[in-house]
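Structure Section — protein described below
Tokens — whole-number codes for backbone shape
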Amino acid sequence: MRLPGARRSLTRGLVLVAVLLPLMAPNIEGQWLSAPGEGWVEAAFFHHDTRRTFDQEGTERTIFGDGRAITRSAFFTAVAGVRRGVDVWVQVPAHSLRFDDAGGERVSRGLGDPRVFLRVGPELFTREAPDWPVALRGGVKLPGGDFDVDAEVIPLGEGQTDWELLLELGRSFYPLPLWTSGWVGHRWRLENSDNRRRPGNEWFWLWSLGGEVGPAGWKATLEGLEGDDWIIQSLRIGSASRHLTQLFLELDYGIGPGRLSGGVRVPLRGQNLPAGTGLTAGYFLRFGEG
């Protein structure tokens, strides 16, 4: 449906949210939980420069007003085992966002929305780990980044709390240098009462296949997102829902005590989310082992 006046401006502001905030899954270490006193940290970087977007009908097109969206984001993730079969994840993003169109240039910089997860596996209740590692992960995304639904402001966060629950599964094919892992989850997105806006709840999934060739590693990931209708100022807006399928290809190599990685993210289909290839880089480091 078409929104008149102020609501059309609101929708344009929401498009800025969709175009400029990247979807980044935390590092896939599979479902092998960190032992007590062990864990890992990662600094991951994302660069996306595009003039293309998936619109409300799911069609890839140029951004309105000859627009160009440039996203540079850093994601700092730490995971630590707190007891056998339980670990905790914390992720804090920082964004440098720029959007240019016929109306001028807009820039925002600062911290985004933090995420905290608790992950539990069967090792909490049994003495031996299963052949197919499995875990249940629950967590929350907090509204930490500045948010303003305005056609002239780039928000650094989404403005509301999200709760997530995921079922994870993994498998190592040792002695072959090959592994696979994945998850399926649901995201409950609460209302931002300040703006009378409630994003639709979402199902999301991910599947990865990875391995090693000498000192180098590789990973291919396919991930998807399917969202419900949004409620904006008491109106149910089906055209505002988010959908995405994307491919992520990554290589990594041992440098120093950790591993340096680089990759590309290629959206294959979407709705109300960015199009165009994004670049990633990161450094991954374990601690507490041995």
About this structure: The CA atoms of residues 67 and 101 lie 4 Å apart.
